[in-house]
Amino acid sequence: MLTKLLVPAFFLILPALSFAQTAERSVTIEADATVKSVDPDTRLIVLQNSETGEEETIVAGPEVVNFDQIETGDTVKAVYTLGVAATMAFPGEVDSMVELEGQAAEGSTPGVAAGTMVTLILTFVSFDAANSIATVTDSSGTEQMIEVETDVGREFVEQLSPGDRVALSFTEGLAVGIVEE
User: Fold this and answer.
1) Where are the domains of the chain?
2) From which domain of life does this come (predicted)?
3) How much is the average pLDDT of 80-108?
């Protein structure tokens, strides 16, 4: 199921990629908020988005160490990054998933971070240029036909030969923490 969602997603972003045998693309979104109130008993924090003025109440779970350091007026920064990379797969490379998470050390400024990277190894089968359809198989042998809608996407798949293995890595990460002023 994951492959059926991620493979078409890759071909949708091909217009933004320009590459020969390697491609990378990422987007980073940052948001700042001000702590409007903190309830130490319920661990509820009311944040006001610095850009829109909207307020949101969140629960700071047990992974938020140093909760007692969070004060009204503090600035919270959230950074979210999403990326995709396409490269020729290494011999023997297999599908993989890596998850990472971390939290601030005891006594330091509060913050948490988490990230995931999923790599799918696809085997190129063919490209029907007249209909702009690429055919690939995933690691289970399931064949998928994907419409390639852009010139950049067509240029990429036209460089591939049947049997070429492509590693598609999808990465996302989120870090949230108090900004020291």
Assistant:
1) 2-31+76-179
2) Bacteria
3) 90
The yes-or-no verdict on residue 95 having pLDDT over 80 is yes
Q: What does the pLDDT read at residue 23?
A: 62
User: Residue 156: which of 94, 91, 87 has the closest Cα?
Assistant: 87
Q: What is the pLDDT of residue 88?
A: 83
Question: Between residues 149 and 64, which one has the greater pLDDT?
Answer: 64
Q: How far apart, in whole angstroms, are the C-alpha atoms of residue 25 and residue 60?
A: 32
DSSP assignment of 9-69, as one string? HHHHHGGG---SSEEEEEEEEEEEEEEEEEETTTTEEEEEETTT--EEEEE--TT-TTGGG
Instruction: Compute CA 58 distance to the chain's CA centroid, rounded to the nearest angstrom.
Output: 22
CA distances to 109, 129, 145 from 18, rounded to whole Å, are 40, 19, 22
Per-residue model confidence (pLDDT) at position 63: 79
Q: Which helix (H) or strand (E) holds 175?
A: strand 165-179
